[in-house]
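User: Predict the structure for this protein chain, please.
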Amino acid sequence: MRDQQSSILAFFAALLAAHIVACGGASGPSEDAIEAYLSRTPGGAAGADGKVEAPVEVPPAKRVSVTIERAEGLPDLDEGPGETDPYVILEYEGQRHRSSVIEGSLAPVWGDTFILDVLPDGILTVKLMDEDSLSSDEQLGVVSKPLPALKVGETVPFVLEFRGGEGGRLTLTLTGIVRP
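Assistant: Here is the predicted structure, written as C-alpha coordinates:
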Protein backbone atom coordinates (compact mmCIF):
# COMPACT_ATOMS: atom_id res chain seq x y z
CA MET A 1 0.00 0.00 0.00
CA ARG A 2 2.81 2.43 0.90
CA ASP A 3 4.62 1.63 -2.36
CA GLN A 4 1.46 2.47 -4.29
CA GLN A 5 1.03 5.76 -2.40
CA SER A 6 4.70 6.62 -2.99
CA SER A 7 4.30 5.91 -6.71
CA ILE A 8 1.22 8.11 -6.91
CA LEU A 9 2.97 10.96 -5.08
CA ALA A 10 6.02 10.63 -7.34
CA PHE A 11 3.77 10.71 -10.41
CA PHE A 12 2.01 13.91 -9.30
CA ALA A 13 5.32 15.55 -8.35
CA ALA A 14 6.69 14.80 -11.83
CA LEU A 15 3.47 16.06 -13.42
CA LEU A 16 3.67 19.31 -11.43
CA ALA A 17 7.33 19.79 -12.35
CA ALA A 18 6.56 19.24 -16.05
CA HIS A 19 3.72 21.75 -15.85
CA ILE A 20 5.96 24.37 -14.25
CA VAL A 21 8.62 23.86 -16.92
CA ALA A 22 6.06 23.98 -19.75
CA CYS A 23 4.60 27.23 -18.43
CA GLY A 24 7.98 28.85 -18.04
CA GLY A 25 8.33 28.45 -14.28
CA ALA A 26 7.48 31.27 -11.91
CA SER A 27 8.12 33.86 -14.64
CA GLY A 28 5.12 32.67 -16.69
CA PRO A 29 4.97 31.28 -20.20
CA SER A 30 7.71 32.04 -22.71
CA GLU A 31 7.22 34.41 -25.64
CA ASP A 32 7.24 31.38 -27.97
CA ALA A 33 4.48 29.70 -25.96
CA ILE A 34 2.36 32.86 -26.06
CA GLU A 35 2.90 33.22 -29.82
CA ALA A 36 1.96 29.56 -30.41
CA TYR A 37 -1.20 30.01 -28.35
CA LEU A 38 -2.26 33.18 -30.17
CA SER A 39 -1.66 31.68 -33.63
CA ARG A 40 -3.67 28.50 -33.02
CA THR A 41 -6.78 27.74 -35.06
CA PRO A 42 -10.09 28.36 -33.27
CA GLY A 43 -11.74 25.12 -32.17
CA GLY A 44 -8.52 23.19 -31.94
CA ALA A 45 -5.99 22.55 -29.22
CA ALA A 46 -2.25 22.83 -29.68
CA GLY A 47 -0.32 19.66 -29.01
CA ALA A 48 3.15 19.43 -27.45
CA ASP A 49 4.69 20.02 -30.88
CA GLY A 50 2.68 23.23 -31.36
CA LYS A 51 0.51 21.76 -34.12
CA VAL A 52 -3.21 22.33 -33.85
CA GLU A 53 -5.24 19.17 -33.32
CA ALA A 54 -8.78 18.73 -34.60
CA PRO A 55 -11.52 19.57 -32.10
CA VAL A 56 -13.05 16.68 -30.19
CA GLU A 57 -16.24 15.37 -31.81
CA VAL A 58 -19.24 15.77 -29.52
CA PRO A 59 -21.21 12.50 -29.37
CA PRO A 60 -24.88 12.22 -30.27
CA ALA A 61 -27.26 12.41 -27.32
CA LYS A 62 -28.64 9.14 -25.97
CA ARG A 63 -31.21 11.00 -23.86
CA VAL A 64 -33.09 14.26 -24.27
CA SER A 65 -34.20 16.60 -21.52
CA VAL A 66 -37.57 18.06 -22.52
CA THR A 67 -38.73 21.21 -20.73
CA ILE A 68 -42.32 22.27 -21.32
CA GLU A 69 -41.93 26.04 -21.39
CA ARG A 70 -45.18 27.76 -22.32
CA ALA A 71 -48.25 27.81 -24.55
CA GLU A 72 -50.03 30.71 -26.17
CA GLY A 73 -53.18 31.26 -28.18
CA LEU A 74 -55.05 28.37 -26.57
CA PRO A 75 -58.75 28.08 -27.36
CA ASP A 76 -61.17 28.59 -24.46
CA LEU A 77 -63.32 25.46 -24.55
CA ASP A 78 -64.79 26.02 -21.10
CA GLU A 79 -67.51 28.52 -20.30
CA GLY A 80 -66.19 31.89 -19.23
CA PRO A 81 -62.96 33.66 -20.13
CA GLY A 82 -59.70 32.15 -18.89
CA GLU A 83 -61.30 28.99 -17.55
CA THR A 84 -59.04 26.59 -19.45
CA ASP A 85 -56.89 24.45 -17.12
CA PRO A 86 -54.20 23.18 -19.51
CA TYR A 87 -51.67 20.39 -19.07
CA VAL A 88 -49.42 18.50 -21.47
CA ILE A 89 -48.91 14.78 -22.07
CA LEU A 90 -45.64 13.70 -23.74
CA GLU A 91 -45.52 10.22 -25.32
CA TYR A 92 -42.35 8.88 -26.89
CA GLU A 93 -41.82 5.25 -27.85
CA GLY A 94 -43.53 3.78 -24.77
CA GLN A 95 -42.45 6.57 -22.40
CA ARG A 96 -45.22 8.79 -21.03
CA HIS A 97 -45.04 11.97 -18.94
CA ARG A 98 -47.72 14.41 -17.76
CA SER A 99 -47.08 18.03 -16.81
CA SER A 100 -48.65 19.93 -13.97
CA VAL A 101 -52.01 21.64 -14.52
CA ILE A 102 -52.02 25.43 -14.85
CA GLU A 103 -55.42 26.61 -13.66
CA GLY A 104 -57.41 29.25 -15.54
CA SER A 105 -54.90 30.24 -18.23
CA LEU A 106 -54.90 30.62 -22.00
CA ALA A 107 -51.15 31.43 -21.92
CA PRO A 108 -49.72 28.98 -19.35
CA VAL A 109 -46.07 28.77 -18.29
CA TRP A 110 -44.89 25.41 -16.91
CA GLY A 111 -41.14 24.85 -16.56
CA ASP A 112 -41.72 21.08 -16.09
CA THR A 113 -38.78 18.92 -17.27
CA PHE A 114 -38.76 15.25 -18.26
CA ILE A 115 -36.06 12.89 -19.57
CA LEU A 116 -36.61 10.72 -22.65
CA ASP A 117 -34.40 7.86 -23.84
CA VAL A 118 -33.72 8.53 -27.53
CA LEU A 119 -34.50 5.78 -30.01
CA PRO A 120 -33.74 5.74 -33.75
CA ASP A 121 -36.68 7.14 -35.75
CA GLY A 122 -38.64 7.82 -32.53
CA ILE A 123 -41.77 9.97 -32.76
CA LEU A 124 -42.78 12.43 -30.02
CA THR A 125 -46.53 12.81 -29.57
CA VAL A 126 -47.64 15.85 -27.59
CA LYS A 127 -51.20 16.19 -26.35
CA LEU A 128 -52.41 19.52 -25.06
CA MET A 129 -55.27 18.89 -22.63
CA ASP A 130 -57.85 20.86 -20.61
CA GLU A 131 -58.57 19.44 -17.17
CA ASP A 132 -62.25 19.40 -16.24
CA SER A 133 -63.33 18.48 -12.73
CA LEU A 134 -66.99 17.75 -13.60
CA SER A 135 -66.50 15.89 -16.89
CA SER A 136 -63.83 14.13 -18.91
CA ASP A 137 -60.71 16.13 -19.76
CA GLU A 138 -60.84 17.69 -23.22
CA GLN A 139 -58.12 17.45 -25.82
CA LEU A 140 -57.12 20.89 -27.10
CA GLY A 141 -54.79 19.44 -29.71
CA VAL A 142 -52.32 16.72 -30.60
CA VAL A 143 -49.12 16.84 -32.67
CA SER A 144 -46.67 14.06 -33.58
CA LYS A 145 -43.15 14.88 -34.79
CA PRO A 146 -39.76 13.19 -34.80
CA LEU A 147 -37.24 14.57 -32.31
CA PRO A 148 -34.31 16.36 -33.93
CA ALA A 149 -30.94 14.63 -33.66
CA LEU A 150 -29.06 16.41 -30.87
CA LYS A 151 -25.50 16.23 -29.68
CA VAL A 152 -24.64 16.10 -26.00
CA GLY A 153 -24.98 19.59 -24.54
CA GLU A 154 -26.89 20.98 -27.52
CA THR A 155 -30.08 22.91 -26.66
CA VAL A 156 -32.77 23.87 -29.17
CA PRO A 157 -36.28 25.34 -28.99
CA PHE A 158 -39.02 23.01 -30.27
CA VAL A 159 -42.24 24.84 -31.19
CA LEU A 160 -45.40 22.89 -31.93
CA GLU A 161 -48.52 24.36 -33.54
CA PHE A 162 -51.90 22.77 -32.95
CA ARG A 163 -54.45 22.87 -35.79
CA GLY A 164 -52.23 25.08 -37.92
CA GLY A 165 -51.78 27.56 -35.07
CA GLU A 166 -55.53 28.01 -34.48
CA GLY A 167 -55.34 25.57 -31.58
CA GLY A 168 -52.39 27.39 -30.01
CA ARG A 169 -48.63 26.99 -29.91
CA LEU A 170 -46.53 25.09 -27.40
CA THR A 171 -42.84 25.82 -26.84
CA LEU A 172 -40.53 23.09 -25.55
CA THR A 173 -36.78 23.23 -24.94
CA LEU A 174 -34.80 20.12 -25.90
CA THR A 175 -31.30 19.44 -24.53
CA GLY A 176 -29.15 16.49 -25.53
CA ILE A 177 -27.71 14.62 -22.54
CA VAL A 178 -25.73 11.43 -22.00
CA ARG A 179 -27.19 8.24 -20.66
CA PRO A 180 -25.92 7.61 -17.10
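Confidence is low (pLDDT under 50) at residues 12-18.
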